[in-house]
Amino acid sequence: MNTIEIIGIPLDLGQTRRGVDMGPSALRYAGLAAKLEALDYNVEDFGNISVPVREHLPPVLPVEYSPYIKQVCSRAYEAGVASLQKERIPVFLGGDHSISIGTIGAVTYEKKAGVIWFDGHGDFNIPQTSPNGNIHGMPLSILLGYGIDELVNNGRRGAKLDASEVVLAGVRDLDYDERELLKKSGIRIYTMREIDERGIAPVIRESIEHLSHLDRIHVSLDMDVMDPQAAPGVGTPATGGLTYREAHLAMEIIADSGLACSMDIVEINPILDNSNSTALMAAGLAASLWGKKIL
Fold this sequence. Notes:
This protein is an alpha/beta fold. It is built from 11 helices and 8 strands.
């Protein structure tokens, strides 16, 4: 029996809006473990990685929290490496998307992995282009080796991903200078316009084919990839996102490939949610990724 290890990372230092630190609790309350156990996985909950409390830190600009974010991402890196070395499937619960600096570093520690990054945003800013200094808008660029050195070198030195190893799907809200960085990056990008025109199924199948030179895939699921009507409990909503069924179909197709090895679920903000509906949806999407079928 495969074992899934749930690792909570209640990090909220990558942005200014409070509440995503409660994301791991919301996902647990939504019955994530029970949904995965129903699929014949053995589920072990690692608990939460220690994260500094914002009120105990100096009141500084968001980008100046990078030393504290590095501490958390270092712990996430170590926890992820340990999980994979035990031949478990790590499912990381955020927190904001900054956690991926550590989690994807861990997943790519011993061998490479492709990443499908579901997000309404690019997450490809660097400090010089960011309009607000929020580090949760920078993790993808950091993983490719750009931006804040101490975060680029988290866990081990240098970039953790090559552009050929990344697919960015569902993007529709980009900062002005970030657009040019992404165009030059070499990342395979599927905007919501392309998903609208072509449909989610061919886009995801093509994404898997694009990553076929690798033998496993990490899914980084930012819940703001969803349309806010479907998932209201996120800190940076953007209209025109994935529907309920589009998201489930994407997870189901990745599951069919047999390549999924690990997962992030990030940016759930229960303060802004409606009866925990966003966490409930995220738990359902995780179940689809790990093999739940209609028939």
